[in-house]
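Contributing new records

If you add data, match the layout below exactly. Sequence lines come first and carry their own label; structure lines follow with theirs. Keep one chain per record. Anything else will be rejected by the validation script.
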Amino acid sequence: MELSEDGEVWIITDEETGVTTEGETREHALEMLDDAVAAYNGEAGRPPTDEELRELGIDPEENTSGELPDVLK
């Protein structure tokens, strides 16, 4: 783990996979790395919550197809 040259972000690399992420804090960089390694390993993410859909301007009650909107694919 290292702090970027400009001291703005933390950069972290998973040695096993070679996946690298960054975050504004050490904790954020580690959280981002967990997500990135899971994606690298093909682990499916969780479905978005209704609140997360609303933040993207999607009304969950109007999504009657049961499919994720294009923005979430």
